[in-house]
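FW: tagging you since you asked about this chain on Friday. Here's the raw sequence from the shared folder, copied in full. Didn't touch anything.
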Amino acid sequence: MTFQGEQTLLILGASGDLAARLLVPGLGSLIASDAVDGVSLVGSAADDWDDERWRSRVAESFAAVGAEGERIDAVAETTPYVKADVTAETEWRRVLDACDGSVVIYFALPPAVTERACQALAGVDLPPGTRLVFEKPFGTDAASAKALNQLVTRIVPEERVFRVDHFLGTSTVMNIAGLRFANRIFEPLMSAEHVASVDIVFDETLGLEGRAGYYEDTGALIDMIQSHLLQVMSIVAMNPPSTIGERDVRDAKAAILRACSVRDGEPVANSYRARYTAGEVDGRRLPSYADEDGIARDSTTETLAEVVLEIDTWRWAGVPFRLRSGKALGNPRQEVVVTFKRAPHIPRGLTGGDHPGRLRIGIALDAGRVTLDLNVNGPGDPRKIDPVSIDTGVAPGELREYGEVLRSIFAGDPILSVRGDMAVETWRVIEPVLSAWRDDRVPLEEYPAGSTGPNGWPLSGVVAGAALHRHAATRRDGSR
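HL: got it, structure written out here
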């Protein structure tokens, strides 16, 4: 028996980590917020589960985010589980029979399985309004992403295809657009005339955390930069859209991605890769990545990646965009840093003013900060210029990031989804880097877990110096 409703969320790969840790909690936060009505849930996977085990998993995931109430209980107590191999067309009909109303099919499956499942689904009559939802990575390169686009748009039209990037569901990232376009003091400065560089960094303390099966096939470059950070970059760099509607925003982002490439066309000179060795992070002892369970002895997968890109437009020509992400690092940073050019002239008699102005926008998934680093006359000697930081918190949205994503899907609004052409472009941008790495033209360096990564990379000094700058930058009253 299913919970009667107007829409059904069908999770394929329901027994996996993604469903338990992110999808079902996101649905719970969405239902509990009263932001959506009439949604039921169906789980399906090839594992030999039954309704009771699936419902227990759902209840635990709801409880983990404090989702409670009659509607939550109704979903958890009635959601069915369908054991099925969705790479077979006959199995699809059995799975869809368990769904009510229009169906949101969420492919929480490995990319290769997802492609075979879509090939089988192409021969099935679908309920009206069916939407297809895909996790990253979408394809394995530009050609496969283009082919997958052609396949899925034979099943449903593009406006009902949702390629999920949960970073786009976080209020802190979406606030980038508001900060840029609602403040006249920033937008005129966001160009090559005033900006020296843009850094987008997502360094975290977490190690592999039991995800060898996924991570070994992706690595930091594909896991974070090809998907999340290129999407963040497109928001940071896009021209002002006419409206906040999905077409205008995604057109503006797509234009940036089409203009983006590895700086100077030199992937060897402008890309860096490394992986962690044994060390201690936040009081936890981590083994070397090569010694983690499930890692092949001849693995060349990186856990830290950095690329330097350029955007060939009038606004951004000549500005390096440096994207970096890594695991098991001792100085976690998740932020966009816009570094402005130094003042062209400091009047004689003033000393200091050596620190460039910076706008820092936090992109952590739970909360963030907006910080403006400035140079002002210091206390005591008014002729001495000191750095100060002005900052404010950016509260998280009312929903978890997957709750935001699901709300947009149920509403049929693809603004938080990656359009098909954009999925192809993000692969195109990094393919020269992937080719250089496969040919071993870029060395795979190492760094101890808990460190800030290898020395000598473009962002090494920025990462190591960020904490020092924040320590030195005080408010006028001397407070932190």
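FW: The two ends are 58 Å apart (CA to CA).
HL: agreed, and The first strand starts at residue 7 and ends at 12.
FW: great, closing this out.
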